[in-house]
Specification:
The complex is a heterodimer of chains A (505) and B (151). With 505 residues, chain A is an alpha/beta fold. Chain A has 16 helices and 21 strands. In chain A, the strands form seven sheets. An eight-stranded parallel β-sheet of chain A has the order 9-19-18-16-15-12-11-10. Chain A has a three-stranded mixed β-sheet with strand order 6-20-21, with helices on one face. In chain A, β18, α12 and β19 form a beta-alpha-beta unit. Chain B is built from five helices and eight strands. Chain B is globular. The mean pLDDT of chain B is 92. Classes of the chains: A alpha/beta (505), B alpha+beta (151). At the A-B interface, α2 of A face α1 and α2 of B.
Chain lengths: 505, 151
């Protein structure tokens, strides 16, 4: 049939191949997991189905002679600011499928990034900067409930007060929840190794903890989500902390759905479900309809683990996030994780990913403010998540009032991800968001663990340099210190919400 | 003959092999005159000595195993195949008459026939001879090849 459906005829990306440079090694044919590349024996040429290309750039990266470039299709629709190619393509897809458009990764719309509108301070003349290479610099961060006040022994020196279990981080960065199923065991293992080496924590996500990763228990945060996959007493105890997942920045208000065909034996065993059955996380926790219900679950988990594990609650940054966070603090959580509108995911309807939630910068500022006003700030730690790109973003988030930051996309990028937004297909050519054994082996946990360790080390250096310039020698001193931030190009209202002064003031 | 030999060989690690064929292209490149992958394939008509075998999820790079009892050595009619003191199996392409006996008897399919207008000889992995370190091991992006003493 020569007739082509519109979403096939108008493909967004195409593979350009320099035929002179192509040595027919067929590496690209084998690497492409989207059936976009094939070898034609009659012509002795590598050919492409451009309509299948997702711009993952695996072939481009692996072409040993640099013969391949994946480019945007130069053929465009009539230029139209309203009917963009994306808008037209979405209609073409939906008119044929009759379904919501599934996508993955984080929001790709140009939602204002407030980190780009915040500037950090530095010391000049009146107060000295610190050289982090010559003087000690402290990034150690503790996550957990802090005491209201300290009580001392009669000697006036020894502290009598005891505080609950804290997570000790060598850098205020943790790896955010990515479940076994959405990503494969190799990336989880890489994160776990990097965390053990560097001294931070990774999060299992809602898919349970595979038994091969139980040796990393002291650096593992285990998640309890609405599906309760893989949750039993042993799971809860094989952890440094427990996180109750209420929502996720990329899909606030909806649950998850791991299709049955992806549920292989390893995932089935870890999630405690039959092989091949759909793993459905309901949108709500069916036992949580109020703050009081949440309190019951928090204390049930604490009771089950003998009050030895801090319990986090993760929510998406939505319109009333400050009030909700307050409720969570009252409910007895030790830390609140807030995932902003740019947060990533392995699968979500496009409409939710792009249009639901608020930016994490606003959420941090609002929640920190509200918790301070209610006198609750010391009772919970605040972990921000969703779209953090660099050490500078981390430091700005901490200056706005967060205690630490969750990074997920960054970990994926360090494993080779090119943000092609195909995680939900389970065909990730880089071997990250797939459990297909041929693809998953592309990710060598030892190599990625080294990459992640390097990344954390680089970010630690970056943060230390920035702190040093500000004349600060401990990350504690910048926490919520919004006086060291100035904004540019923001409205008065935005400055008020962020609690920062415009540059020049 | 069970004595351990002081021989370094290339070992493929199947679980890490991602069938990217960097080993093949690197091999062809370093064995070329031009040291350029495009010219090696297109002008010099060379072929790789290591070949990637793929079947679904299983893949690995295969090259001469430098066997303790090399069938190719027994089968060679021209004395082109010799075993040195460490046990490394060498193939002298000048002496080779192209009878393809080695190609037939190699249980690993690691000896390949080269048929060009001017030449007719078999070829196989020489552990990168003078280069000192096998190019395939150096090129492998996923640590699926290691260069180690014989186990």
């Amino acid at each position: 049939m020569l007739f082509k459906k519109p979403q096939v005829a108008f493909y967004p990306f195409m593979v350009l191949r320099d035929d002179y440079k192509c040595v027919r090694c067929k590496s690209c044919v084998d690497q492409c997991s989207f059936d976009a590349t094939y070898y034609d024996e009659d012509l002795n040429m590598i050919m492409n189905h451009h309509e299948n290309c997702v711009n993952c750039k695996r072939c481009e990266a692996f072409c040993p002679t640099d013969a391949i470039k994946v480019v945007r299709n130069p053929s465009t629709f009539h230029p139209d600011a309203n009917w963009t190619p994306e808008a037209i393509r979405d209609i073409h897809v939906q008119m044929l499928t009759g379904a919501v458009i599934l996508t993955s990764t984080g929001n790709d719309k140009p939602i204002k990034n407030y980190f780009d509108h915040l500037l950090l301070d530095a010391c000049q003349v009146t107060n000295p900067p610190i050289d982090p290479l010559r003087e000690p610099m402290e990034l150690k961060t503790f996550i957990g409930r802090k005491t209201d006040q300290l009580q001392f022994d009669s000697d006036g020196v020894s502290i009598k007060t005891t505080i609950g279990k804290q997570l000790e981080l060598e850098i205020p960065v943790l790896f955010s929840a990515m479940s076994y199923g959405s990503i494969n065991l190799n990336l989880q293992k890489a994160m776990a190794i990097a965390c053990r080496e560097f001294g931070t924590y990774w999060n299992t996500g809602e898919g349970g903890l595979h038994k091969s990763l139980r040796e990393f228990k002291d650096h593992t945060i285990v998640q309890v989500a609405s599906g309760r996959f893989g949750v039993d007493l042993e799971y809860l105890e094989t952890s440094a902390a427990i996180e109750i997942k209420i929502g996720q920045g990329a899909k606030p208000g909806i649950g998850g759905h791991l299709p049955g065909e992806k549920v292989n034996e390893g995932i089935a065993e870890t999630r405690m479900i039959p092989v091949g059955s759909d793993a459905i996380s309901p949108a709500p926790h069916h036992d949580i309809y109020s703050i009081e219900d949440l309190r019951q679950l928090i204390y049930a988990l604490k009771e089950a683990t003998n009050y030895e594990k801090p319990v986090f609650v993760k929510i998406a940054a939505v319109h009333n996030v400050a009030a909700i966070a307050c409720g969570i603090a009252h409910a007895g959580a030790d830390a609140i994780a807030i995932d902003g509108v740019r947060g990533g995911t392995g699968a979500t309807p496009k409409s939710l990913r792009d249009h639901v939630g608020i930016p994490i910068e606003m959420a941090i500022a609002a929640v920190d403010d509200r918790l301070r006003k209610e006198g609750l700030r010391n009772e919970v730690s605040l972990i921000a998540a969703g779209g953090f790109r660099s050490a500078v973003d981390v430091l700005k988030a901490i200056a706005l009032g967060a205690d630490a930051v969750y990074i997920g996309t960054v970990a994926k990028l360090a494993a080779g991800c090119t943000q092609c937004q195909q995680c939900h297909t389970g065909r990730c050519a880089w071997g990250i968001t797939t459990n297909n054994p041929k693809l998953a082996k592309r990710l060598n946990p030892d190599i990625v663990a080294e990459n992640l360790y390097n990344l954390l080390r680089a970010w630690a250096h970056d943060i230390k340099e920035l702190l040093g310039a500000m004349g600060i020698n401990a990350i504690e001193s910048i926490k919520g210190n919004r006086l060291r931030l100035r904004s540019w190009g923001l409205t008065e209202q935005e400055n008020k919400i962020l609690g920062v002064l415009p540059a020049g003031m | 003959m069970s004595k351990k030999r002081k021989l370094m060989k290339v070992y493929p690690i199947e679980k890490n092999c991602i069938s990217c064929r960097y080993c093949e292209v690197a091999c062809t490149m370093v064995h070329s005159e031009s040291k350029d992958p495009v010219k090696a394939y297109k002008l010099e008509n060379l072929l790789p000595r290591a070949t990637v075998e793929v079947k679904e999820a299983v893949s690995l790079s295969l090259m001469c195993r430098h066997c303790k009892h090399p069938f190719c050595f027994d089968a060679c009619i021209s004395g082109a195949i010799m075993v040195d003191e460490n046990g490394k199996v060498n193939l002298d392409e000048e002496k080779c008459v192209g009878c393809w006996n080695c190609v037939l008897v190699c249980p690993f399919g690691a000896a390949h026939p080269m048929i060009r207008e001017e030449k007719r000889h078999s070829f196989k992995c020489d552990l990168c001879g003078d280069r000192g370190f096998p190019a395939c091991v150096e090129a492998c992006p996923n640590r699926a090849l290691i260069y180690d003493f014989e186990r």
